[in-house]
Amino acid sequence: xxxxxxxxxxxxxxxxxxxxxxxxxxxxxxxxxxxxxxxxxxxxxxxxxxxxxxxxxxxxxxxxxxxxxxxxxxxxxxxxxxxxxxxxxxxxxxxxxxxxxxxxxxxxxxxxxxxxxxxxxxxxxxxxxxxxxxxxxxxxxxxxxx
Length: 146
Description:
By secondary structure, the chain is an all-alpha fold. The protein has helices at about 35-60, 60-70, 95-105, 110-145.
């Protein structure tokens, strides 16, 4: 850019950092943004639209009924059933994962639940690593002090 000086605004030589170019703000009655116009229209006509949708739902329109119900009731979240199988959390991480894979293979645990359990074992592994590193650092610092 020709004549560019770092720290200066090339578009307006009178521009100063932190000073508004329009301190008085938008004049009253100025054209509203699209967002403001839509918000105003929803405020004005929203109750009428809602009434029409509810009336159509009451008349048997399943699309309108679905829309009304989706606003009245939160969607039901998928929830896994509890599973029971043998897992020793004191075992090394690899052995724990093998136990989960064995339970999946035996049909004791659904594959998606097995995957979640393995992810939890991975989190446990990370926690153990951090705890071990913390202990090593404490031991090293104790040796340096002596």
